[in-house]
UniProtKB/TrEMBL annotation:
Signal peptide: none annotated. Residues 32-177 form the PapC N-terminal domain. PROSITE patterns: FIMBRIAL_USHER. Keywords: Cell outer membrane, Fimbrium biogenesis, Membrane, Signal, Transmembrane, Transmembrane beta strand, Transport. This is Outer membrane usher protein. The lineage of its organism: Bacteria, Pseudomonadati, Pseudomonadota, Gammaproteobacteria, Pseudomonadales. It is a multi-pass membrane protein. NCBIfam families: PRK15284.1. It comes from the Bacteria. It is found in: Cell outer membrane. Residues 749-807 form the PapC-like C-terminal domain. InterPro entries: Fimb_usher, Fimbrial_membr_usher_CS, FimD_plug_dom, PapC-like_C, PapC-like_C_sf, PapC_N, PapC_N_sf. Belongs to the fimbrial export usher family.
């Protein structure tokens, strides 16, 4: 306030001075201005009425960001009206549409009362509710007692605030190309996968595709393109569920997974608060060279990317994936790793009084979209009986096949969570004269030991009798296209441990599977990493990974050791050694980051077969994510790879190309009102708006409060953001839409005069064609004007409405002196401009 008192009122009254006036006003209910303190020629020609009352907002419609308690909700058009009992005060009219976004409890909603013929909420009908508008921050601040609101959690909103997004189309893709030149000749491959989709209201229509082209010396070319899946998805928040119609893979923790065509209605754990959601699968492995990693399930590609040499962990798979996954690691030296991963599930636990369920019906189908099998119906449930106990089970029935399951889960509090279940099946298959009847027993355990910095993500054991048959095994037996491969025993566990005193982390994963009809398979991996200081070197790290894969007659054992030394500001030098299949490799590498969107790595080393060199470059572009790699080994091979991953989103509000990682996933279309090159930061990093002022932020978490912001430090000089942060909670697969309030154009001190060359009222505001405030009139019409665009028509506003308009010159770059503009009666400026 002291800074305000020091303002020299003999100088031009700027926006800062007016801000001080509004600050004084906020300390009193009503303020009478003594204009004698202002050294102005025309003290009667003032428009300071807006500052006469505390928090007074001129009646009218304003676009404001709505804040509820400590949370920021959505941008909304809010009408302010004059209070009936006090014409000198204004009130925010909270419309029914806005109130529906607040997340009020059902009982509170029943007791709401309205005024102005049902268009405005009576605040007193919500005990303790308050509303305050602030044009300075373009915000509407609402305060509502917590006991009147639905349950919320950090970064999670109740269903009433979820946004289904806008209608639009999308095309997402991942393309991988590789060429290798060996003594035996050259081979080329081009693979791709992606999703084509269309959104309409809450419906998401999707088509998944994948393609492959291979060409090798002396062999004919192979080409393949296939639509792997067609389906429609929509969320049903009132049931906490999702409905899928079309081709799908049964997502069942009791009865396995198989492909079918039909309908599925299931509780969606993603709709729950984050601390109540389920387990997402994680894939870990080691790449000996630059490698392509493909994760698929029953032939459908789920994930396709390139990774540099060393250990890798893929943690961004869709947590709706369940069942057995096939992992294919294709090295640039020609070697291949293939192994299977059984996605685990944490024990069945459900909140007391709640029921989670899955219902599905249809017919099994094959890769060619042909129905192949009997009609089936399945249902499973998990019921929170009491605090700590859950009962779960279900059944699956089809012609010649049936199975029933029943289990119990227990929250052991400080000892973790445990579940035990048994499944009984009966199947009649062509290869057997009598029906096969058997049982399968399972026990699952999960626990985080906070006091020991340890976590058992999942540990489980399953035993199946020889005559037990899952639905997937039954389908394969009916087709008779391959021998039965029935499961017998399965052990699986994932454990992590932090030794904070030693800065040591340990991660262990083990999976053992035996079969009644074939050889067992084993896979384990152990990773350890430690940070330490040596002399003047800080934050050195050493990591070691050992793994073993064994399946049928194939076996792959290996170990990887790496020592990393920070070098310079963002770079690092590392030494790595690996051993696998009787061969060893020693490599020196240099890694650096050019900026937050560009990273590269250069390596040189020696193997048992000769010297090697490789490079790896990654670019997070606005239009796509690009990865380029190359490898060379003396006398053996030369190989290069390129990966491009991105997408296109097209809506009625605009379109943009963008990078992408989750095919057909949730995204947010950002609009900067035609201003290009605005830096926008979201979950996936930094991107920029295109020439039309549009950008798409991908990797948006469904049913999760996502924040997107403008990077103010990187804004171009002639761009100003009056609103820099937006939030959105989007449903699965939605195309959200949010608009930033951005002003672009030159900034300069100008003089604005009326048609009779008198000065406009002191304190009047200049607005551009989009209604954005661009300046405040000072003494004798002197105004600091922003957002100046050649030939644009702006208006002057006082008394609550536009009074006149003025036109900017068609050439602004050549101005050498202070510009003088005439504000003509409304409509005359348009004629003058034409």
């Amino acid at each position: 306030m002291k800074d305000c008192i020091r303002v020299d009122h003999r100088k031009v009254l700027t926006a800062t001075t007016l801000y001080c006036l509004s600050t004084w006003v906020s300390a009193a209910q009503e303020f009478q201005f003594n204009t004698d303190v202002l050294d102005l020629k025309d003290r009667q020609n003032l428009d300071l009425g807006v500052f006469a009352s505390a928090n007074f907002i001129m009646p009218g419609e304003y676009t404001l960001m709505v804040h509820l308690n400590r949370d920021t909700l959505v941008e909304f058009s809010v009408v302010f009206v004059t209070a009936d009992d006090d014409p000198k005060s204004s009130l925010a009219c909270l419309s029914p549409a806005l109130v529906s976004e607040l997340g009020l409890k059902a009982q509170t909603i029943k007791n709401l009362t309205w005024w102005r013929e049902g268009s405005c909420l009576q605040l007193s009908s919500v005990p303790g509710m308050q509303a305050r508008g602030d044009l300075g921050s373009s915000g509407l601040y609402l305060s509502v007692p917590q006991d009147q609101l639905e349950y919320t959690a950090a970064n999670w909103d109740p269903p009433s605030r979820w946004d289904d997004g806008i209608a639009g189309a999308m095309f997402d893709y991942s393309i991988n190309a590789q060429t290798t030149d060996r003594k035996s000749g050259r081979s080329d491959s081009l693979t791709g996968n992606g999703t084509v989709g269309f959104n309409l209201d809450a419906w998401r229509l999707r088509g998944d595709w994948q393609s492959q082209m291979q060409r090798s010396a002396g062999q004919s070319s192979q080409q393949q393109f296939a639509w792997s899946r067609f389906y429609a998805l929509r969320p049903i928040p009132s049931l906490g569920s999702s409905l899928i119609v079309g081709e799908d893979y049964l997502d069942s923790n009791l009865f396995g997974s198989f492909r079918y065509t039909g309908a599925n209605l299931s509780s969606n754990d993603n709709m729950l608060p984050p601390n109540l959601r389920g387990y997402a699968p994680e894939i870990a492995g080691v790449a000996r060279t630059n490698a392509r990693v493909v994760i698929s399930q029953q032939g459908r590609v789920l994930y396709n990317t390139q990774v540099p040499p060393g250990p890798f962990r893929i943690q961004d798979l869709n947590d709706a994936v369940s069942g057995q996954l096939d992992v294919h690691v294709e090295e640039q030296d020609g070697s291949v790793q293939d192994f299977k991963v059984d996605t685990a599930s944490i024990p069945y636990l459900t909140r007391p009084g709640s029921v989670r369920y899955k219902l599905a019906t249809g017919k099994p189908s094959d890769w060619e979209h042909q129905l192949d099998g009997p009609v089936f119906t399945t249902g499973e449930f998990s019921w929170g009986v009491s605090n700590g106990w859950s009962l779960y089970g279900g059944g699956l029935g089809a012609k010649d096949y049936g199975s029933l399951a029943l289990g119990i889960g227990r929250d052991l509090m400080s000892f973790g969570a445990l579940s035990v279940d048994v499944t009984q099946s009966r199947a009649s298959v062509p290869v057997r004269s009598s029906a096969l009847t058997g049982k399968s027993y399972r026990i699952s355990y999960s626990k985080r030991f906070d006091e020991y910095d340890s976590q058992v993500t999942f540990a489980g054991y399953r035993f199946s009798e020889e005559n037990y048959m899952s639905m997937n095994e039954f389908i394969e037996a009916r087709r008779g296209d391959q021998p039965l491969n029935r499961s017998k025993n399965m052990y699986t566990t994932t454990v992590s441990k932090q030794f904070r005193d030693a800065d040591l982390s340990v991660y262990f994963n083990y999976n053992h599977q035996t079969y009644w009809d074939s050889r067992p398979s084993d896979r384990f991996s152990l990773s350890m990493s430690r940070y330490f200081d040596v002399g003047g070197l800080k934050n050195l790290s050493v990591s070691m990974t050992a793994y073993k894969n064994k399946s049928n007659h194939a076996s792959d054992n290996g170990a990887y050791l790496s020592i990393n030394i920070p070098w310079g500001g963002t770079g690092s030098v590392s030494y790595s050694a690996s051993a696998s299949g009787g061969e060893s490799t020693h490599t020196m590498s240099y890694y650096d980051s050019l900026d937050e969107r560009n990273q590269y790595m250069l390596s040189a080393g020696k193997t048992s077969n000769g010297e090697t060199a490789s490079g790896f470059f990654s670019h997070q572009g606005d239009l796509a994510q690009v990865v380029a790699s190359g490898s060379y080994q003396t006398g053996e091979y030369t190989s290069a790879g390129l990966s491009v991953q991105g997408g296109a989103t097209i809506t009625g509000q605009g379109a943009a190309l963008h990078r992408n990682s989750v095919m057909g996933g949730t995204r947010l279309l950002v609009d900067t009102q035609g201003v290009a090159g605005v830096p926008v930061r979201g979950n996936g990093g930094l991107t920029h708006t295109n020439r039309f002022g549009k950008a798409v932020v991908t990797d948006v978490n469904s049913y999760y409060r996502n924040q997107t912001s403008i990077d103010l430090d990187a804004l171009p000089d002639e761009v100003e953001a009056t609103q820099s942060v937006i939030q959105a909670t989007l449903t699965e697969g939605a195309i959200g839409y949010r608009r930033f309030n951005v002003i672009a154009g030159r900034k300069a001190m100008v003089t604005i005069l009326m048609a009779d060359r008198d000065a406009p009222p002191f304190g009047a505001t200049a607005k551009n064609s989009r209604g954005q405030d661009t300046g405040i009139i000072g003494e004798e019409g002197s105004t600091y004007l922003s957002g100046m665009k050649p030939g644009e028509i702006m208006s002057l506003n006082w008394g609550g409405s536009a009074q006149c308009s003025f036109t900017l010159p068609k050439k602004l770059d050549s101005l050498k002196s202070q510009l003088e503009l005439l504000c003509l009666p409304l409509g005359d400026a348009d004629k003058a401009a034409s």
